[in-house]
Amino acid sequence: MKGIQGHCNSCYMDAALFSLFSCTSVLDSMLFKPFPLCDRNVQNILRDEIVNPLRKTGFVMARSVMHLREQLTEKGQCSSFTTAEKDPEEFLNLIMQQILGIEPLLKLQSGGQEEQDCYCYQIFMDKQEDLVVPDVQQLVEHSFLSSDLKLVEIPSCFIIQMPRFGKEYKMFSKIIPSLELDITDLLLDSPRECCVCGDVATLECSECFKDKMFAATGLKQFCSSCSKQVHSHYRRKAHKPTRLHVPEEFHSRSPRGSQQVPREKMELFAVLCIETSHYVSFVKYGPENEHWMFFDSMADRHGDENGFNIPVVTLCPEVAKYLDLPVAALALEQPRDMDGVAKRLFCDAYMYMYQSKKMALYK
């Protein structure tokens, strides 16, 4: 496999397309949505000139991506799609929403207000001094809590942008990829587990989430008896837990403590990274920690101005070594000393992509 050949600032699009279609079918609905709900020309180019060759031969020529960029320009969406640098989310929002018209990937609700739809989720949060090397799970939980957000339903695909802005500013020098993203406690009106005894939770406390006496990961919700005990401590007496809505059918199914709350988890399938204006991607192609490949659409070049870029796909099992490191040890790792391309995954992450294979069957 060689991947997608880059040309004229196309790396943002190359990396996004390779991530979404090389090893997963979670968004294949984009390729088959019926006309006239989508733009047939763009859909045909995406399916027949890019995705099919990528999966069949492992290589897509630069002219196929340029054909797609020309179509996006012709639709009048943006006159610079064939020449200028773009952000992956700009391309993804455009092609998913305005061109192919697929349903928003995420449905969110904040504080009982109306639902909000979006295709990519941008993490917003204040700098946390105690989060030196966070993982994606922690960042998502902090962001949802600070914005009082909940997922209305389980998404088939969850695309998450990291807290970094522009080409230079990064809130964190390293981020650990969470291979699984547990969204159980992020779901609206879904049964939750008491973080103390494991029974069905009825109360949630945002102040306990910030309390260093508790684990660093996981929202803090309690059953009524555990909440009473936890908040009897003088440091937590002023906390104001909020009541959770527990589905009646779940609450009445079984006696207290006799059944575990089911966990809803999504799996990581790709990471887009950026360094000095250039996008690359890491794709998880198998179940083991070593099963990663690295893609760069402009890894090498033949010739000068009239030459062409040479894309490269390489296996990068060295990533597993750092996934298994304790957080304290990873924090001490100097990026320049990290093996292979691992530094780019941990230090340059821009966008994480998660999938729910179960939900992909229905969406």
Explain this structure.
It is a single chain. By secondary structure, this protein is of the alpha+beta class. The chain contains 13 helices and 18 strands. It folds into two domains: 1-188 and 264-363, Cathepsin B, Chain A (Alpha-Beta Complex), CATH 3.90.70; 191-263, no CATH class. The mean pLDDT is 91. It has helices at 11-21, 29-32, 40-57, 62-74, 88-99, 136-147, 206-209, 224-230, 248-251, 319-323, 327-332, 342-347, 357-360, and strands at 3-4, 59-60, 106-110, 116-118, 121-122, 149-151, 157-161, 164-165, 169-170, 180-182, 203-204, 221-222, 242-243, 265-275, 278-284, 292-302, 308-315, 349-355. The strands form five sheets. Strands 5, 7, 10, 14, 15, 16, 17 and 18 form an eight-stranded mixed beta sheet that branches. The protein has a three-stranded antiparallel beta sheet with strand order 4-3-6. The chain starts with a strand and ends with a helix. The chain is globular.
CATH architect. name of the largest domain: Alpha-Beta Complex
**Largest sheet, strands/sense/barrel:** 8 strands, mixed
Shape: globular
Structural class: alpha+beta
What do the pLDDT scores average to? 91
Please tally the helical runs, counting DSSP H or I stretches of 4 or more residues: 13
Number of strands: 18
Query: Rounded to an integer, what's the Rg over CA atoms?
Result: 22 Å
Strand content range: 15-25%
Find the CATH topology of the largest domain. Answer: Cathepsin B, Chain A
Total count of domains = 2
Give the CATH level 1 class of the largest domain: Alpha Beta
